[in-house]
Each structure stands twice: as C-alpha cells, then as structure tokens.
Amino acid sequence: MFGPNVSMHSGNHRTDIVGKYMKDVKLDEKRPEDDLDIVIGDDVWIAAGAIILNGVSIGEGSIIGAGSVINKSVPPYTIVVGSKSQKTWKRWDEYTIEFHKSQMAIK
C-alpha cells in the first residue's frame, strides 16, 4: 500500500567525475551500482511522502513511516520512521509473523 507522494529513485549520479556537470555525464559512463533495482516485498505499507532510494529492498510486512528517507534495506516485518531510516522496532514477534504469513498464504 502506497500513500500519496511516495517517490522511488532507482538511479544514482556519479560524484567522482571531474570537470563535468551531472547533466553532461553520458549513459556509457554510468557504473552498474549507479542503477540498482528497488525491491518491495508483499504486504508492505509505505506512508505519504516517503522516499525510497537506489538499491534498497524492503522486506515483506514492513511499514515505512510518512516522510521517511529509506537509503538502506529494511528487514521483513520492521517499522522504520524518519529521515535516517533506522530500525526502530519489530512489527510483531516471531510467532505472530509466522501466523500472519500462514494467513496470507490462504488468500
């Protein structure tokens, strides 16, 4: 589920090229790590205004708080909030996670 104004940026800019504006860097000058996929698991909630950056995976069942900037991968069933995107707490205990997953498999 996505809230309004969520943005995802799977590309990145080279910062190590001397003597060129970013707009002048050609596609053949990009590195593989400049364009990494974003992977979002099942049953993820991403609240309004969140920004998901290059190369991030968001594990199933996780919740991303409004306005969060996600620049590191998020483990499954984790709630992250804020611009530092630090793990704050587990969404559920392990038993509840397994129960939830079994219920989702029924649907």
Automatic annotation (TrEMBL):
PROSITE patterns assigned to the protein according to its UniProt record, in alphabetical order? HEXAPEP_TRANSFERASES (PS00101)
**Transmembrane ranges?**
none
Alphabetized, the UniProt keywords read: Acyltransferase, Transferase
**Has UniProt tagged this entry with the keyword Magnesium?**
no
Tell whether Phosphoprotein is among the UniProt keywords.
Answer: no
EC no. given is 2.3.1.-
Record-linked InterPro entries: Hexapep (IPR001451), Hexapep_transf_CS (IPR018357), Hexapeptide_acetyltransf (IPR051159), Trimer_LpxA-like_sf (IPR011004)
What molecular function does GO assign, one term?
A: O-acyltransferase activity
Family, according to the entry, reads as follows: Belongs to the transferase hexapeptide repeat family.
- Database matches in PANTHER family: ACETYLTRANSFERASE C18B11.09C-RELATED, SIALIC ACID SYNTHASE-RELATED
Q: What is this protein called?
A: Putative acetyltransferase
Q: Which organism is it from?
A: bioreactor metagenome
